[in-house]
């Protein structure tokens, strides 16, 4: 039995993986900035789903599901429809390529993202370790 | 979903005539002082004037251009208000021109804000961009990428997005005839690195693969000839085409590890781009190794590389590249470039940090850890084949 997609439990599981991954710790050692990961409604997802992660110097300090987006003001917002996130989580789509083709929308300090390309890869790798139960 | 972007490519002898067929009023020529001295800018001005286009020159682009140079050129471009921007030079000139044009068209933005996933710039409202390469290496005439130097931080910035691709590339071999053998060699290694990394990066695709393979073949066939005899018109033309073809290939599939390491070496020790990336090419092939066995074999087959039946194609290809580099007098190790051991050791942390922060690193089929990047630099310093 997997962990349900984009739930509080899922966010905390990703957070734990980040904190046990030496590769993530190394790749993101200079990373500063918390994030919203937003799933836009599509297919089986009927409402916006938002997960918050506080990522700081190779560590995930906290993570949770957010119900009120105004609750926090994260440094970054990554949003995409459900189908795009699913492809990324199934490793069928490269997250950076998704950004370049406009399917994954990013708001925040782009220079920091560009300066730590491997951090994005390792963060994605951490999500791949979760047995995600997709709504479809 | 993916894109293939390319300029209109006009190529072959006399292709500069395309300039005399343009429509417009004024052109801003971006170049460097050396290209002006060679008389190539006069040639361009003459062809533009045949089209009734007046022009002015900015010849202040330095190798590895800085953001400050871009700002200066963009300010002059804005004062002049051209409807054509014409870059005449090597990769530095073409990248600077791409960046200046962005700031000219979008004074509300700086070039540092333009990343690979930027969209909606709306370039073309004021001007169109023509690139005329005078070296056969960078392929910048056919890519959207813009590499600038952050002089304070001693690192290179990879900027640009699909919209910053030139509108027209004029690939006229006459513009590359003045290259001395050393420059021909190092820019030729740049072509080879673009083509091999474009063919093997994790973003490789069906559209770019054929271009990269053809460019690899052309380099192995014609680079030694172009280095031996700069007046060999056929070799010059083929290498000029190869550079553009490789640009179209890797520009749509991205370079990888040799570029991450080469950019870093270039930024810290001012090693010319082609020499730096070319030096790391065999080491990166060895490092990626088995992850790409089939692709190394495909390349080896395409260049008819002779090797024992049971031999692995990766190491054989790395040896063939070292053989080619050696034959055109390109260095095989960082030590051979003349960087003293103490300078290398003192800069090692910076070299590793830069490479690790380079966006191209993640396109490698095997992405190294920081420890592995450091080891790779040490092996490349000594000229030792990768065994880890």
Count of discrete structural domains of chain B: 2
How many domains in all of chain A?
Answer: 1
- Pattern of helices and strands of chain B: EEHHEHEHEEEEHHHHHHHHHH
Supply the CATH class of the largest domain in chain B.
Mainly Alpha
Strand order of the largest sheet of chain B: 1-8-5-4-2-3
| Average pLDDT over all residues of chain A | 93
CATH homologous superfamily of chain A - what is it?
SCP2 sterol-binding domain
Q: Per DSSP, what share of the residues of chain A sits in E-state strands of 2 or more residues?
A: 25-35%
**Structural Rg of chain B:** 20 Å
* Weakly predicted, low-confidence segments of chain A: none
CATH topology of chain A: Nonspecific Lipid-transfer Protein, Chain A
CATH homology group of the largest domain in chain B: Dehydroquinate synthase-like - alpha domain
Largest sheet of chain A: 5 strands, mixed
Query: What share of the residues of chain B lie within helices?
Result: 40-55%
- Please count the helical segments of chain A: 6
Cα-atom radius of gyration of chain A: 14 Å
Strand segment tally of chain B: 8
Structural class of chain A: alpha/beta
Topology:
The complex is a heterodimer of chains A (136) and B (388).
Chain A lengths: L2 E2 L3 H13 L1 H6 L4 E9 L8 E8 L2 E8 L9 E6 H8 L5 H6 L4 E3 L2 H6 L1 H12 L3 E2 L3
Parallel strand pairs in A: 1-7, 2-5
Antiparallel strand pairs in A: 2-3, 3-4, 5-6
Chain B lengths: L7 E4 L14 E5 L2 H5 L2 H11 L3 E5 L8 H14 L3 E6 L1 H15 L22 E6 L12 E5 L4 E5 L8 E4 L9 H20 L5 H23 L4 H18 L6 H13 L3 H16 L4 H10 L10 H15 L6 H4 L3 H17 L12 H13 L6
Parallel strand pairs in B: 1-8, 2-3, 2-4, 4-5, 5-8
Antiparallel strand pairs in B: 6-7
Helix pairs in contact in B: 3-4, 5-6, 5-7, 5-9, 6-7, 8-9, 8-13, 9-11, 10-11, 13-14
